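Today's session is about reading a structure prediction critically. Students often jump straight to the picture, but the first step is always the sequence itself: look for stretches that repeat, for charged clusters, for runs of hydrophobic residues. Only then move on to the predicted structure, which in these notes is written as discrete structure tokens rather than atom positions. Here is the chain we will use throughout the hour.
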Amino acid sequence: MPLIASQVISGVGINESTQYNTAIGGIVALIAGYVGFRRLHVFPGLTSGGYIIPAFSVTYGLLAIVLIMARLDYSRLQLLTSYVLTIGFFTYIHLKFVVRRPVILGVVPNGSLGTLPTFDRVIWHVVPSPDAPTPRFEGVVVDLHAEHGDAWSSRIAAFALEGTPVYHVKQAIEQLSGRVEIEHLSENTLGALNPNDLYLKVKGAFDMMMALIALAFLSPLLITVAILIRLDSPGPALFKQQRTGFRAKPFTVYKFRTMHQSAATPNDERHSAITQDGDPRITRAGALLRRTRLDELPQLLNILKGEMSMIGPRPEAVALTKWYEKEIPFYHYRHIIKPGISGWAQVNQGHVSDVNDVREKLNLDFYYVKNFSAWLDILIVLKTIRTMASGSGAK
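Below is the predicted structure for this chain, in token form.
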């Protein structure tokens, strides 16, 4: 096939349509990756540009899939070069201008602010008086429920007019910590008591499609793991347990068995559902499966049955749910969303057993409910991959 206005790169001829498709696709992937990375940064837990590579890998990967499925000509060398240069450029900018730059937040010292918590790279700068000179703030934290007086109200308005974001103290701490603490349910606390119904339906359909694809591709791995479990200790490969799911309804969850079968049903049902550090019931194969999170893969079947989602609050054993709901107010509110294989609490806290740790986990779950969105789900997927690679938080 003759080349049109051919150009030789490393001895390979590239025609105009190939260059055009690759260039336009690369620009779209770059813009989408940048927008995605910026949107992910509205959530806490992103440091040192660790998600620059995943964000652009996703967009360039999707571009390659689209080009292949649409049977469009493209240059792999040109696309790879664009991908490498994009990551290099944004990594350089991040390391030079962002990574070590502290975030200075102004604090209006009226109302019931209390002692503000400490966060990495966050400097709380208390504004001493309404007319005091201040540095340039990334934002200003105010107790908006307090009476500030005319002078302070005027200064707060001036910050807003200067383009400096003004946050209610509770909102600011939520966005810095990734936690939502509630004492009573209200529209102001959780935005809306029911999450976005449209996204719930779209997410459910996407979950089922991904579960089907995952089961098809992972079936050799699933069979291998099942055989390994049977060889390692006597008993079935799958472990079944009643857990609390969507709208607080019980369902049977499927996991690869990681404990000796004789330890599966001790007398105390509640304590048997709690995994302790160095739990002697865990088998040799089970320790590896828990560290890599591979024991969760059979829950793809729960997704196909419509009982679970890829991302959501982790389902607890029914025995633990009954205990937690007696100890923690509003515990059942976490069940307004389908439970997931991975979730915001899992990637930020890991496995917990003590009731005080469960309160912290619930604060993380409430943050997910309040900020329920595709962007937060994407961030959790990226953090889950990192957790699986490191094995952190497993028991």
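Discussion point for the tutorial: The first strand starts at residue 7 and ends at 9.
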